[in-house]
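Quick entry, no commentary yet.
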Amino acid sequence: MSNAKEIKRKIWSIKNTGKITKAMELISTVKMKKAQDLALEKRDFVLEMLKTFSRVEDHLNEYPLFSRAKGWKTLGVIITSNKGLCGGYNVNVMKKVSAYMKDTWEDIDFIAVGKRGSQFVARTGNKLIADFSNDFTDTLDPVFTKHISEMMREKFLSGEYGKVVVFHNFYMNTIKQVPVAKVALPIESNDIRSYLVSILEDHVDLEKELPKNSDIAGFEIEPDPETLVSEVVPIILDMIFFDTLLNAKASEHSSRMIAMKNAKDSANKIASLLTLKYNKARQAMITQEVSEITAWVESMKES
């Protein structure tokens, strides 16, 4: 009887675990959808940015963010989660960082966005110059992302770092996220245009919306194009980094959703096996009791 009671207790415990993981799966699903919706809401803003960028693109040749700075060190921005229970999400980013350092032999200092990333930097003995993990929540604030993006540009333009690389998981679909090492600075004009177009090309008729050179040839740009470039490009770079964080968040929630679904399925499977084991133990106990009663009845007849 004690064995059956122990199995029943295990069944109860595992079923409760399954309920918790199911709840976490549903929460992650909602958060992933929210991150995806935020990424789509910026299309109107992106279209206006692309229109403005098209007007000043010819004046970008000497822009300082488009050429490698004098610094020989690299600034790495590592984006991970603050919490665990998300499968291989964090491990994959850390492996990407380790592989990049091994392949390039670059001297890298880090900015951490996510506690798992800051712990990784400390564990590997690398230098952490800034940690934004405490403010990295599921509700991303553009002001928060702009602060990091500005720091990246300042460190690059100061000549302290010759390159800025962002390590994060790229969201492909619900079940696939790919760790990437993306060079954020220096950046090229074509990279900016490609990024803006990639967001709009399936939803907007760019041939119709974008101004043609003949349409703006007779116009003067005020203030001067250089001033306009210095204002427009940082805004676009802030938006690119904001989009990177949204993408990383969608990847995190998707990875956690899959991990919790697998945990829920495993809990249900174990509960089913234990239920079968419990029923067998209970049946054996009942059979034994019936046998004992039958033997007692037979012994009474003989007496």
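second:
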Amino acid sequence: MNNSAIKICLQDSTFQKTVMDNGVRILTENLSYLKSVSLCIWVRTGSRVEENDENGICHFLEHMMFKGTTSRDALQISKEIECVGGSLNAFTGKEATSYFCRVLSDDLHLGSDVLTDMYLNSSFPESEMKWEKQVICQEIHQLEDSPEDYVNELFQMRFWQGDHFGRSILGTIDDVLHFDREKLIKFKEDHYGPLETIVCAVGNFCHEDLVDLVKDGMGSLKNGSPRMQQPKPKNAPGALIQEKDLEQVHLCVGVEGPSVKDDDRNTAYIFNTLFGGGMSSRLFQEVREKRGLAYNIYSFYSPYSDTGVIGIGASTEPDRFEELLDVMGQETLRVADTITGDELRNAKNQLRGTIIMSNESAESRIGRIIKAETTYGRYISVDEIIDDIEKVTLEEIRDFASRLFSPAAFTAVALGQVPNSMNILSYFNRL
């Protein structure tokens, strides 16, 4: 097999990349001071590629990949990894699905064998499908019973109302119960192709050893149906109030933000940090420390390949909800004109520390490596990320905030004891 490879030597690690003949990419970073390896098989297939009758199938497929292969049953899959002290897990997002394990360096062969066996040879037994549907139904009910999580789910659905991007990753109970084995197999064949697949590992091991372990299996992957270019999600600003008998009212408010490729992405990270990214942030100080309005108050920035969301979330007692809205609205609408140089410097320092410390986690390194590869097609060092953040000026971040919070751009969702007639958007559209 004629695989091409590039090698970049860093101070504390060695990054290597091998591209197999069928297009599967193998990315590794060697950290000689570790005694373990974190291994991930990532596929560029998430809930946004699902058709109308497939909502939730990506997540269901992820669950079923653990339920047996042609050579292992479900118990063997988990037992083989756990018996050597390792761990095995997966997650599904809007744009990707990831399967990962962590094992001691001496057990790399076992970890790679189990993970590639799952990815390539899952058999989707009918008996397991029956019970896993019930498990996912329980997961959906659990989400609905967790107000902090559920308000964010409702926000995503309202933010992209009418667009595939806004549908639940978990799907609906009706959709999940109607999936069958043939549909699952067809979806995997169509969407788990080699050009969409990345194998990434970080830890103490040899790149060539990993390539040798996975090349035969991953080299057998063949392309399914051609991947259609997904249209950019359409944001639909508006409000949703869902009345529910809860002790608190949970709120989520947001606007469309930069994508991972946008020139404003680093400005967005800085803005999010100073606005609601910690105990010293504006929102935390004004809402919690000065007024005691909420225990939970935060902002978030969620970038995707072609869009993004910047938002704020909080919860408070029903009789203080209007006061919370008033304070959050005021802080949001005045922030563009009042960001100071000290706030900018502090936010940059906070981000710098967070990035450097997260780099001590092998799992975080995997996330950074895959994000750089899928977004820019190359390795991006921590130093380069920090340098880009340092370049953001006070004028740029003020201009960004001014453009971000333009009138009529907000989506707001409230969950709890709130009258349906309440105009929650009015607090954020008073310019």
